[in-house]
From TrEMBL:
Lambda-like tail fibre protein N-terminal domain boundaries: 1-134
Name recorded for this polypeptide: Phage tail protein
InterPro entries membership: CarboxyPept-like_regulatory, Phage_tail_collar_dom, Phage_tail_collar_dom_sf, Phage_Tail_Fiber_Structural, Stf-like_N
Superkingdom per UniProt: Bacteria
Region (Disordered) residue spans: 117-141, 695-716
Biased composition (Low complexity): 124-141
Domain Phage tail collar: 632-679
Alphabetical list of Pfam families matching this protein: Collar (PF07484), phage_tail_N (PF08400)
Regions annotated as coiled coil: none
Species in which this protein is naturally found: Salmonella newport
SUPFAM superfamilies, per database record: Carboxypeptidase regulatory domain-like, Receptor-binding domain of short tail fibre protein gp12
Signal sequence annotation: none
Bias type Polar residues, positions: 704-716
């Protein structure tokens, strides 16, 4: 239920604070308020504020126009909080005020220990998961190693096939060499075949080396890859050597062409043999190439398996590293938890926390014992449950219902208190009774026989005694008297004599002997006068309406009817009182069943020329005057002068006993404060009558502009390009010299002498190109921001077009 917080907001000098907004921001979620929601209240010009605040905790901020927001404090509103001012709630003691700082720190450390323990548990879980991942990766690595071993076996088989092919090639090469001796041409062919066979053998050797490398890759994949690369380079070198040898053989065959003619016959004879040998060598070469290709595929598979093994090994290392990190984190968290617990114990020692007792606060230890007398231990739910189980086996003190065979101690036979009488006690008392009366009756049976074996003998005797009166002097005096004697004895003679002359109730006064005298004696008529018959007033029918100075012709009380005969109502009853002066009362009839009808009165004074007054309507609660307002309705009044019978609606209380109709409208006894408020029709749902709604803005948009920012002059980063070289464009020489003439004998001789007596003229201007290459420069501006200015718009509070009236309420 909301709590009213109201008062006047003042500064240090007692002056009301104007143009201020009180803002309440929810600190946490309650049953009715969501965290971080904001409510506001705008006090009036006199600093008065009033707000119904829901249960919860709020941060109070004061927003004064032209000043930054001011944090006033935190208030807490409870269900049972009393109405008060904002100062009362800000100054109220909170839960944190009564709790020692050391205790709050201790609780915070306990929470930290719990958090670190939870973190340690999560780290341990992560470590277990990482360990499982490491085991999975190790299994995958083992599978990859097995695949590598299988690939190495396949490579070894391929190498064996290559060796077999090489042996066949060697055999074919030997045959070709033998046949080649018969002719130069066949020698050249055989040499070529031998060279090809040698190349095939070299390739087979290379395949065997690659197979060995693949076998080694099962243990060390990286080394296998390097060995495969080296083998490939070696094969390429040997292929080049084979090509060179082939060219050499070709040259030798050409040089032996001269000898071919001499051995043409032999060559022709052995041509078929050489061709067959060449075919066999070609076949061997093809087989060797196939074996080499198979070996290369095996090497590739081995390399791939080694790569997968390396990948899984790396994943295993990563998982192991994660497991180690998780284990380290768990250890660190456990260490922090121990340290936090140690700090908590130290703080407890410093602040001297003691055990709780019946008279002071402190630390209490839990106990599940059900037989402890200690006042320093607190019972656990387990102990309470044990006690409840034990209690449920006991019978209640009030109206106990015992089941089974309960036992009790047997009291002494002399016991006369509230002890429990057991079967043994009763048997002893019976035996005592029997033994104490041997002279009168030997046995209980004799007593029963004497009573006629009536089990209800005592009850029968007591019932008969209850119907008897005790024998005393009064009964003795009444015994044997007659009716008259009894009347005289009890003093009823005079009463009986008066009753003989009494009036009978059933006669309804008909047995009164002197009725007029009776009427006079009871004050119904004066002592001197005659009886008046009070006859029922009969209607005279439709009475004509009296107008002007006309008066009634009869004296007395006249009743008539109204039927469209000049009266204010169409139908009704008229009661005319005539005498010295006249008066009329008119009660109209309503045309609607059960609906109220108007009533009128008028009068005529006692002079002959007096005229009738105007008809005056009588107003009732069911027929109020047209200018009246229901009691409790807010009336807009255009003046500060409040009329009599009305009150200004300013939040004041009123006397409900003095104004019962107003109390029906406002059961709380408080008139709402309508100053500065407008009235709104209650929505279909979501609002209660007399509930308040604070001002708010409808969702809308604003225009914004960014303020220009001068970032100043910035410099670029420097870069050392180092020493660069130029190209040799423009490099040239000049040849210069001269001719020298001499005369010797009969002829002239001219000779050229370099540099002698001659000169050159050339500018030699040229250019060089310096190449720097593509590069970038960095311009550093630095972090900065722009100011966005949103233009303010609107009044100090949400308003609509309005005219100020005073709201007043009718008092009744």
């Amino acid at each position: 239920m909301p709590v009213l917080i109201s008062g006047v907001l003042k500064d240090g000098t007692g002056t009301p604070v104007q143009n201020c907004t009180i803002q309440l921001k929810a600190c946490r979620t309650s049953t009715t308020v969501v965290v971080n929601t904001v409510a506001s209240e705008n006090p009036d010009d006199a600093g008065r504020y009033s707000m119904d605040v829901e249960q919860g905790q709020y941060t109070v901020t004061l927003l004064v126009e032209g000043y930054p927001p001011s944090h006033a404090g935190v208030i807490t509103v409870y269900d049972d909080s009393k109405p008060g001012t904002l100062n009362d709630f800000l100054g109220a003691m909170t839960e944190d005020d009564v709790r020692p700082e050391a205790l709050r720190r201790f609780e915070a450390m306990v929470e930290e220990v719990a958090r670190q323990a939870s973190e340690a548990s999560r780290n341990a879980t992560a470590a277990g998961q990482a360990s499982e991942q490491a085991q999975t990766s190790a299994g995958q690595a083992a599978e990859s190693a097995t695949a590598a071993v299988n690939a190495a076996g396949a490579a070894e088989a391929s190498a064996t096939q290559a060796a077999s092919s090489a042996a066949s090639a060697e055999s074919s090469a030997g045959t070709a060499t033998t046949k080649a001796g018969e002719a130069s041409a066949s020698a050249a062919s055989a040499d070529t075949a031998r060279t090809a066979a040698a190349a095939s053998a070299a390739a087979a050797k290379t395949s065997e080396a690659n197979a060995d490398a693949s076998r080694t890759a099962a243990g060390d994949s990286a080394a296998a890859a390097a060995a495969s690369t080296t083998a490939a380079q070696t094969s390429a070198a040997r292929a080049g050597a084979s090509e060179t040898a082939a060219k050499t053989s070709e040259t030798q065959a050409a040089s032996s062409a001269g000898d071919a003619g001499a051995s043409a016959t032999a060559a022709a004879a052995s041509e078929k043999v050489a061709a067959a040998s060449a075919a066999e060598a070609k076949t061997s070469e093809t087989n060797a190439a196939t074996s080499a290709s198979t070996a290369a595929g095996s090497a590739t598979a081995a390399s791939s398996s080694a790569s997968e093994a390396s990948t899984h090994a790396a994943a295993s290392d990563t998982s192991a590293s994660l497991a180690a990190q998780s284990s380290t984190a768990a250890g660190a968290a456990a260490t922090r938890a121990e340290e936090a617990a140690k700090r908590a114990e130290d703080i407890a020692d410093v602040i001297s926390l003691e055990d709780a007792s019946l008279t002071k606060k402190g630390i209490v230890k839990l106990s599940s014992a059900t037989d402890s007398d200690s006042e320093a231990l607190a019972a656990t739910p387990k102990a309470v449950k044990a006690v409840m189980i034990e209690v449920q086996t006991k019978a209640p003190l009030d109206s106990p219902a015992l089941t089974g065979t309960p036992t009790a101690p047997t009291p002494e036979t002399t016991a006369a208190g509230i002890e429990i009488a057991t079967a043994a006690f009763v048997a002893a008392k019976v035996a005592q009774l029997v033994g104490s009366a041997p002279e009168a009756l030997d046995t209980l049976k004799e007593l029963a026989d004497a009573l006629g074996n009536d089990p209800n003998f005592s009850t029968t005797v007591l019932n008969k005694l209850a119907g008897k009166q005790p024998l005393d002097d009064t009964l003795t005096a009444l015994s044997g008297k007659s009716v008259d004697g009894l009347i005289e004895y009890v003093g009823l003679r005079e009463t009986i004599n008066h009753a003989a002359d009494a009036l009978l109730k059933s006669q309804n006064g008909g047995d009164i002997p002197e009725k007029p005298l009776f009427v006079q004696n009871i004050g119904a008529l004066p002592a001197s006068g005659t009886a008046v018959a009070a006859n029922r007033l009969a209607s005279r029918g439709a009475l004509p309406a009296l107008t002007g100075t006309t008066r009634g012709s009869d004296s007395g009380l006249i009743m008539g009817e109204v039927y469209n005969n000049g009266y204010p109502t169409q139908y009704g009853n008229i009661l005319r009182l005539t005498g010295t002066g006249d008066g009329e009362i008119l009660i109209g009839w309503s045309g609607t069943n059960g609906a109220p009808a108007p009533a009128y009165i008028r009068s005529h004074r006692d002079t002959a020329d007096a005229e009738w007054s105007e008809w005056a309507m009588l107003y009732t609660t069911l027929n109020p005057p047209p200018d009246s307002h229901p009691v409790g309705a807010a009336i807009a009044w255009p003046s500060d002068a409040i009329p009599a019978g009305y009150a200004l609606m300013q939040g004041q209380s009123f006397d409900k006993s003095a104004y019962p109709l107003l109390a029906i409208a406002y059961p709380s006894g408080i008139i709402p404060d309508m100053r500065g408020w407008t009235i709104k029709g209650k929505p279909i749902s979501g609002r209660a009558v007399l509930s308040q709604e604070m001002d708010g803005n409808k969702s809308h948009s604003h225009t914004a502009r960014a303020q220009d920012t001068d970032l100043g002059t910035k410099s670029t980063s420097s870069f050392d390009y180092g020493t660069k070289s130029t190209n040799t464009t423009g490099n040239h020489t000049h040849q210069f010299g001269g001719y020298i003439n001499s005369y010797w004998g009969d002829s002239n001789h001219t000779s050229f002498q370099p540099g002698g007596g001659a000169w050159t003229q050339a500018a030699g201007d040229h250019a060089h190109t310096v190449y720097i290459g593509g590069h970038e420069h960095t311009m550093y501006i630095g972090p900065h921001g722009h100011v966005v200015i949103v233009d303010a718009d609107g009044n100090a509070e949400t308003t609509v077009k309005n005219i100020a009236f005073n709201y007043i309420v009718r008092l009744a």
